[in-house]
Amino acid sequence: MDGVLVLDKPAGITSHDAVMQARKILGIRRIGHLGTLDPIATGVLPLVVGRATRLAQFFRDRDKTYEGTMRLGFATDTYDRTGKPTTPPLDPQASSAELEVVFQELSGEYNQQPPPISAKKVGGVEAYKLVRRNQPVQLPPVHVHVKEFTLQGWEPPLLRFRLQCSGGTYVRSLVHDVGRRLGCGAHVCELRRLASGEFTEKEALTLERLRELQAQGRTQEALAPAEELLPEFPPYKLPPAAVAAVLHGRDFRTFPPLNWPRIKVLGPDGRLLAIAERGTAGFYHPAIVL
Protein backbone atom coordinates (compact mmCIF):
# COMPACT_ATOMS: atom_id res chain seq x y z
CA MET A 1 0.00 0.00 0.00
CA ASP A 2 1.45 3.32 -1.12
CA GLY A 3 -0.17 6.74 -1.07
CA VAL A 4 -1.72 9.33 1.22
CA LEU A 5 -4.41 8.64 3.79
CA VAL A 6 -6.26 11.80 4.81
CA LEU A 7 -7.22 11.22 8.43
CA ASP A 8 -9.80 13.20 10.37
CA LYS A 9 -7.90 13.35 13.65
CA PRO A 10 -10.08 13.34 16.76
CA ALA A 11 -9.43 15.60 19.73
CA GLY A 12 -7.53 14.21 22.68
CA ILE A 13 -4.71 12.39 20.90
CA THR A 14 -1.40 13.54 19.48
CA SER A 15 -0.48 13.28 15.81
CA HIS A 16 1.98 10.55 16.81
CA ASP A 17 -0.86 8.64 18.50
CA ALA A 18 -2.89 8.95 15.28
CA VAL A 19 -0.01 7.52 13.26
CA MET A 20 0.34 4.61 15.69
CA GLN A 21 -3.36 3.78 15.43
CA ALA A 22 -3.26 3.95 11.64
CA ARG A 23 -0.26 1.60 11.63
CA LYS A 24 -2.17 -0.89 13.74
CA ILE A 25 -5.31 -0.71 11.61
CA LEU A 26 -3.52 -0.95 8.25
CA GLY A 27 -0.87 -3.40 9.42
CA ILE A 28 1.84 -1.18 7.94
CA ARG A 29 4.68 0.32 9.93
CA ARG A 30 5.90 2.73 7.26
CA ILE A 31 3.54 5.65 7.94
CA GLY A 32 4.28 9.28 8.77
CA HIS A 33 2.26 12.47 9.10
CA LEU A 34 2.54 15.71 7.11
CA GLY A 35 2.38 18.37 9.80
CA THR A 36 1.55 18.09 13.48
CA LEU A 37 -1.86 18.84 14.96
CA ASP A 38 -2.06 19.67 18.67
CA PRO A 39 -3.96 17.16 20.85
CA ILE A 40 -6.97 19.50 21.27
CA ALA A 41 -7.20 20.03 17.49
CA THR A 42 -9.28 17.96 15.08
CA GLY A 43 -9.39 17.64 11.33
CA VAL A 44 -7.16 17.05 8.35
CA LEU A 45 -4.01 15.09 9.13
CA PRO A 46 -2.52 13.63 5.92
CA LEU A 47 -0.55 10.44 6.46
CA VAL A 48 2.00 9.20 3.93
CA VAL A 49 1.93 5.43 3.64
CA GLY A 50 4.44 2.92 2.32
CA ARG A 51 6.75 4.13 -0.43
CA ALA A 52 4.97 7.49 -0.44
CA THR A 53 6.79 8.41 2.79
CA ARG A 54 9.69 9.42 0.52
CA LEU A 55 7.50 12.18 -0.90
CA ALA A 56 6.91 13.86 2.46
CA GLN A 57 9.42 16.65 1.78
CA PHE A 58 7.19 18.05 -0.98
CA PHE A 59 4.18 18.50 1.32
CA ARG A 60 5.41 19.81 4.68
CA ASP A 61 5.42 23.54 3.94
CA ARG A 62 2.07 23.76 2.19
CA ASP A 63 -0.65 26.13 3.31
CA LYS A 64 -3.04 25.12 6.07
CA THR A 65 -6.63 26.29 6.62
CA TYR A 66 -8.29 26.34 10.05
CA GLU A 67 -11.44 27.35 11.84
CA GLY A 68 -11.36 27.78 15.57
CA THR A 69 -12.50 29.46 18.74
CA MET A 70 -10.38 31.51 21.09
CA ARG A 71 -11.30 32.78 24.52
CA LEU A 72 -10.40 36.34 25.42
CA GLY A 73 -9.82 37.28 29.04
CA PHE A 74 -6.66 35.45 30.11
CA ALA A 75 -3.61 33.74 28.65
CA THR A 76 -2.29 30.27 29.53
CA ASP A 77 1.19 28.76 29.59
CA THR A 78 0.34 26.38 26.74
CA TYR A 79 -1.54 29.10 24.80
CA ASP A 80 -4.62 26.81 24.77
CA ARG A 81 -7.34 25.61 27.13
CA THR A 82 -5.21 22.80 28.58
CA GLY A 83 -2.76 25.18 30.23
CA LYS A 84 -2.56 27.11 33.47
CA PRO A 85 -3.60 30.78 33.48
CA THR A 86 -0.65 33.15 33.30
CA THR A 87 -2.58 36.44 33.46
CA PRO A 88 -5.37 37.60 35.77
CA PRO A 89 -8.89 37.18 34.36
CA LEU A 90 -10.33 40.23 32.64
CA ASP A 91 -13.66 41.04 31.06
CA PRO A 92 -12.86 41.63 27.37
CA GLN A 93 -14.52 44.77 26.02
CA ALA A 94 -13.24 44.75 22.43
CA SER A 95 -15.62 45.63 19.62
CA SER A 96 -15.80 43.69 16.36
CA ALA A 97 -14.13 46.63 14.60
CA GLU A 98 -11.22 46.58 17.08
CA LEU A 99 -10.83 42.83 16.67
CA GLU A 100 -10.72 43.13 12.88
CA VAL A 101 -7.96 45.74 13.16
CA VAL A 102 -5.88 43.37 15.29
CA PHE A 103 -6.51 40.50 12.87
CA GLN A 104 -5.32 42.70 10.02
CA GLU A 105 -2.19 43.70 11.96
CA LEU A 106 -1.34 40.02 12.48
CA SER A 107 -1.79 39.17 8.80
CA GLY A 108 0.98 39.10 6.23
CA GLU A 109 4.57 37.86 6.42
CA TYR A 110 6.63 38.21 9.58
CA ASN A 111 8.69 36.29 12.14
CA GLN A 112 6.56 34.48 14.70
CA GLN A 113 7.66 33.35 18.15
CA PRO A 114 6.72 29.67 18.69
CA PRO A 115 5.05 28.75 21.98
CA PRO A 116 7.54 27.53 24.62
CA ILE A 117 5.45 24.42 25.21
CA SER A 118 5.79 22.75 21.83
CA ALA A 119 7.42 19.79 20.11
CA LYS A 120 10.20 21.95 18.67
CA LYS A 121 13.58 20.68 19.80
CA VAL A 122 16.28 22.55 21.70
CA GLY A 123 19.57 20.70 21.68
CA GLY A 124 17.78 17.55 20.58
CA VAL A 125 15.16 17.73 23.36
CA GLU A 126 11.51 18.73 22.85
CA ALA A 127 10.86 22.18 24.28
CA TYR A 128 7.89 21.03 26.35
CA LYS A 129 10.08 18.55 28.21
CA LEU A 130 12.50 21.31 29.17
CA VAL A 131 9.62 23.47 30.40
CA ARG A 132 8.38 20.61 32.57
CA ARG A 133 11.87 20.45 34.11
CA ASN A 134 11.64 24.19 34.87
CA GLN A 135 14.47 24.88 32.44
CA PRO A 136 14.36 28.15 30.46
CA VAL A 137 13.33 27.81 26.81
CA GLN A 138 13.88 30.42 24.13
CA LEU A 139 12.93 29.19 20.69
CA PRO A 140 14.10 31.13 17.64
CA PRO A 141 11.35 32.90 15.67
CA VAL A 142 10.15 31.36 12.42
CA HIS A 143 9.07 33.13 9.25
CA VAL A 144 5.35 32.71 8.61
CA HIS A 145 2.76 34.01 6.17
CA VAL A 146 -0.75 34.61 7.50
CA LYS A 147 -2.78 34.87 4.30
CA GLU A 148 -6.27 35.07 5.78
CA PHE A 149 -7.24 35.82 9.37
CA THR A 150 -10.90 36.74 9.67
CA LEU A 151 -13.46 37.20 12.41
CA GLN A 152 -16.35 34.74 12.11
CA GLY A 153 -18.27 35.56 15.27
CA TRP A 154 -17.88 37.42 18.58
CA GLU A 155 -19.90 36.48 21.65
CA PRO A 156 -17.76 37.59 24.61
CA PRO A 157 -15.60 36.01 25.79
CA LEU A 158 -15.55 33.60 22.82
CA LEU A 159 -14.37 34.59 19.37
CA ARG A 160 -14.63 32.41 16.27
CA PHE A 161 -12.08 32.83 13.50
CA ARG A 162 -10.92 31.45 10.17
CA LEU A 163 -7.27 31.23 9.20
CA GLN A 164 -5.20 30.35 6.16
CA CYS A 165 -1.46 30.33 6.74
CA SER A 166 1.84 28.90 5.63
CA GLY A 167 3.09 25.60 6.95
CA GLY A 168 4.94 26.02 10.24
CA THR A 169 2.62 28.73 11.56
CA TYR A 170 1.58 28.22 15.18
CA VAL A 171 -2.10 29.00 15.62
CA ARG A 172 -1.62 29.06 19.39
CA SER A 173 1.02 31.78 19.07
CA LEU A 174 -1.21 33.78 16.76
CA VAL A 175 -4.07 33.65 19.26
CA HIS A 176 -1.72 34.49 22.11
CA ASP A 177 -0.58 37.57 20.16
CA VAL A 178 -4.22 38.62 19.70
CA GLY A 179 -4.61 38.64 23.49
CA ARG A 180 -1.39 40.59 23.98
CA ARG A 181 -2.41 43.28 21.50
CA LEU A 182 -5.82 43.63 23.09
CA GLY A 183 -4.31 43.70 26.57
CA CYS A 184 -6.64 41.04 27.94
CA GLY A 185 -4.94 37.74 27.17
CA ALA A 186 -6.31 34.97 24.92
CA HIS A 187 -5.97 31.24 24.33
CA VAL A 188 -7.23 28.59 21.91
CA CYS A 189 -10.38 26.73 22.97
CA GLU A 190 -11.23 24.75 19.85
CA LEU A 191 -9.37 24.24 16.59
CA ARG A 192 -10.16 22.32 13.42
CA ARG A 193 -7.92 22.00 10.37
CA LEU A 194 -10.03 22.16 7.22
CA ALA A 195 -7.24 21.67 4.70
CA SER A 196 -3.56 20.86 4.45
CA GLY A 197 -2.30 21.70 0.99
CA GLU A 198 -4.56 19.96 -1.53
CA PHE A 199 -5.99 17.59 1.11
CA THR A 200 -9.34 18.67 2.58
CA GLU A 201 -11.84 17.51 5.18
CA LYS A 202 -14.16 16.32 2.40
CA GLU A 203 -11.87 13.34 1.81
CA ALA A 204 -10.83 12.83 5.44
CA LEU A 205 -11.68 9.55 7.14
CA THR A 206 -12.18 8.97 10.84
CA LEU A 207 -10.30 6.19 12.58
CA GLU A 208 -13.64 4.42 13.01
CA ARG A 209 -14.28 4.51 9.26
CA LEU A 210 -10.75 3.26 8.59
CA ARG A 211 -11.40 0.31 10.89
CA GLU A 212 -14.61 -0.45 8.98
CA LEU A 213 -12.77 -0.45 5.66
CA GLN A 214 -10.10 -2.72 7.13
CA ALA A 215 -12.72 -5.19 8.35
CA GLN A 216 -14.21 -5.22 4.84
CA GLY A 217 -10.84 -5.68 3.14
CA ARG A 218 -11.17 -2.30 1.43
CA THR A 219 -8.35 -0.27 2.99
CA GLN A 220 -6.85 0.48 -0.43
CA GLU A 221 -9.87 2.71 -1.05
CA ALA A 222 -8.74 4.96 1.79
CA LEU A 223 -5.53 5.98 0.04
CA ALA A 224 -4.85 8.50 -2.71
CA PRO A 225 -2.42 6.48 -4.88
CA ALA A 226 1.16 7.74 -5.05
CA GLU A 227 0.97 8.33 -8.80
CA GLU A 228 -1.98 10.71 -8.31
CA LEU A 229 -0.10 12.90 -5.82
CA LEU A 230 1.83 16.06 -6.66
CA PRO A 231 -0.28 17.10 -9.67
CA GLU A 232 2.07 20.05 -10.25
CA PHE A 233 4.73 17.58 -11.44
CA PRO A 234 3.89 16.37 -14.98
CA PRO A 235 3.86 12.58 -15.41
CA TYR A 236 6.23 10.82 -17.78
CA LYS A 237 5.80 7.14 -18.59
CA LEU A 238 9.07 5.29 -19.06
CA PRO A 239 9.59 2.76 -21.84
CA PRO A 240 10.18 -0.73 -20.39
CA ALA A 241 13.84 -0.74 -21.38
CA ALA A 242 14.59 2.32 -19.23
CA VAL A 243 12.99 1.15 -15.97
CA ALA A 244 16.03 -0.65 -14.55
CA ALA A 245 18.31 2.33 -15.15
CA VAL A 246 15.97 4.73 -13.36
CA LEU A 247 15.51 2.37 -10.41
CA HIS A 248 19.33 2.38 -10.06
CA GLY A 249 19.38 6.18 -10.02
CA ARG A 250 20.81 6.72 -13.48
CA ASP A 251 20.10 9.84 -15.53
CA PHE A 252 17.81 9.52 -18.53
CA ARG A 253 16.38 11.51 -21.42
CA THR A 254 12.69 11.99 -22.12
CA PHE A 255 11.11 11.58 -25.54
CA PRO A 256 9.82 14.01 -26.54
CA PRO A 257 12.19 16.31 -24.58
CA LEU A 258 10.62 17.94 -21.50
CA ASN A 259 11.62 21.18 -19.81
CA TRP A 260 9.93 20.92 -16.39
CA PRO A 261 11.99 21.36 -13.18
CA ARG A 262 10.55 18.12 -11.78
CA ILE A 263 8.54 15.26 -13.26
CA LYS A 264 6.81 12.15 -11.94
CA VAL A 265 8.37 9.08 -13.51
CA LEU A 266 5.83 6.30 -14.09
CA GLY A 267 6.53 2.72 -15.02
CA PRO A 268 4.84 1.01 -17.99
CA ASP A 269 2.10 -0.16 -15.57
CA GLY A 270 1.42 3.43 -14.45
CA ARG A 271 2.94 3.08 -10.98
CA LEU A 272 5.08 5.91 -9.63
CA LEU A 273 8.75 4.96 -9.73
CA ALA A 274 10.57 8.19 -9.02
CA ILE A 275 10.59 11.98 -8.84
CA ALA A 276 13.17 13.26 -11.30
CA GLU A 277 14.81 16.67 -11.51
CA ARG A 278 15.94 18.36 -14.70
CA GLY A 279 19.70 18.26 -15.15
CA THR A 280 21.95 19.40 -17.96
CA ALA A 281 21.99 18.59 -21.66
CA GLY A 282 18.35 17.47 -21.62
CA PHE A 283 18.84 14.76 -18.99
CA TYR A 284 16.71 14.10 -15.91
CA HIS A 285 18.08 12.74 -12.64
CA PRO A 286 15.98 10.43 -10.39
CA ALA A 287 16.24 12.48 -7.19
CA ILE A 288 13.85 10.22 -5.25
CA VAL A 289 13.37 6.60 -6.22
CA LEU A 290 10.38 4.84 -4.72
Helices and strands in order:
Blueprint: E1 3-9, H1 15-26, E2 31-33, E3 42-49, E4 64-72, H2 96-105, E5 108-112, E6 121-122, E7 125-126, H3 127-132, E8 142-155, E9 158-165, H4 171-182, E10 186-196, E11 199-200, H5 207-215, E12 223-225, E13 235-237, H6 243-247, E14 252-253, E15 262-266, E16 272-278, E17 283-289
Describe what is shown at a glance.
The protein has 290 residues and is α+β, with helices and mostly antiparallel strands. The chain has six helices and 17 strands. Strand 2 (31-33) and strand 3 (42-49) form a beta hairpin.
Descriptive report:
The chain has 290 residues and is an alpha+beta fold. It has three domains: 3-62 and 198-226, Pseudouridine synthase, CATH 3.30.2350; 68-188, 2-Layer Sandwich (Pseudouridine synthase); 232-289, Roll (Archaeosine Trna-guanine Transglycosylase, Chain: A, domain 4), CATH 2.30.130.10. Helices cover 19% and strands 34% of the residues. It contains six helices and 17 strands. The protein has helices spanning 15-26, 96-105, 127-132, 171-182, 207-215, 243-247, and strands spanning 3-9, 31-33, 42-49, 64-72, 108-112, 121-122, 125-126, 142-155, 158-165, 186-196, 199-200, 223-225, 235-237, 252-253, 262-266, 272-278, 283-289. Strands 1, 2, 3, 4, 5, 8, 9, 10, 11 and 12 form a ten-stranded mixed beta sheet that branches. It has a five-stranded mixed beta sheet with strand order 13-15-16-17-14. A two-stranded antiparallel ribbon has the order 6-7. Helix 1 packs parallel to helix 5 (207-215). The chain is elongated. It starts with a strand and ends with a strand. The model has no long low-confidence stretch (mean pLDDT 92).
